[in-house]
Amino acid sequence: MSDVWEVEGGVDPRDAGGPNRGERATLVDYLRVYRLTLELKCQGLTPEQLATRSVPPSTMSLLGLVRHLAAVEQSWFRRVMDRRLDLPRLYGKLEHPDADFDGAVGTSECVDEAFATWRAEMAYAEEWVERADSLDVLGRHPDGDLELRDVLVHLIEEYARHCGHADLLRECLDGRTGQ
């Protein structure tokens, strides 16, 4: 097996088949690509591998990243854009800021829950963006109202940074790089 990442069937699911037109389409597609990249980095691993921590004292793992990004999606769309700041954060983030990483354990149940939650939060966000009249729609944030475009750019940045972490975590697990 090569250490260079190869997408099954040779078709990269991130390839949308053409250039984007307009701000919304561009932002949505960049976010879609980063979401798929994280999913690809997690494919084919056991629960134990997904929960394998990076370098001590960090508790970062691929599974922790999935849980973290589910919490990020929930916070930005259900709490900020829906203006429901009183909604409890996933994984008790307010009480324990690293709960998404610390609670990522190598069991099938934890993996199944993390991916189901992440997919549900992504679906909610995608539907929210599709329903929005424009990227100018405001969400309520403790630091001041934010436009939907700001939230999308922040999510792209968040995913991009964490996909870099995922690259390194995956390489440490089985030597695979790329994509």
Can you characterise this structure?
With 179 residues, the protein is an all-alpha fold. The protein has a single domain (20-174), classed as Four Helix Bundle (Hemerythrin (Met), subunit A) (Up-down Bundle), CATH 1.20.120.450. It is built from 6 helices and 2 strands, in the order H-H-H-H-H-E-E-H. The protein has helices at 23-42, 47-50, 62-81, 99-102, 108-131, 148-174, and strands at residues 138-139, 146-147. A two-stranded antiparallel sheet has the order 1-2. A hairpin with a 6-residue loop joins strand 1 (138-139) and strand 2. The longest helix is centred in the last third of the chain and has 27 residues, at 148-174. The radius of gyration is 17 Å and the shape is globular. The two termini are 16 Å apart.
Quick structural overview:
It contains 6 helices and 2 strands.
Quaternary structure of the protein: single chain
SSE run: HHHHHEEH
**Poorly predicted segments:** none
List the strand order in the largest sheet: 1-2
Mean pLDDT: 90
Number of helices: 6
Structural class, from secondary structure content?
mainly alpha
Tell me the name of the CATH class: Mainly Alpha
* Gross geometry: globular
| Sheet with the most strands, sense and barrel status | 2 strands, antiparallel
What fold name stands as the CATH topology?
Four Helix Bundle (Hemerythrin (Met), subunit A)
Total tally of structural domains: 1
Beta fraction? under 5%
| Distance from first to last alpha carbon | 16 Å
Instruction: Give the CATH H-level superfamily.
Output: dinb family like domain
Strands, total number: 2
Rg on CA atoms, Å: 17 Å
Region (Disordered): 1-20
InterPro entries: DinB/YfiT-like (IPR034660), MST-like (IPR007061)
Biased composition (Basic and acidic residues): 11-20
Organism: Microlunatus aurantiacus
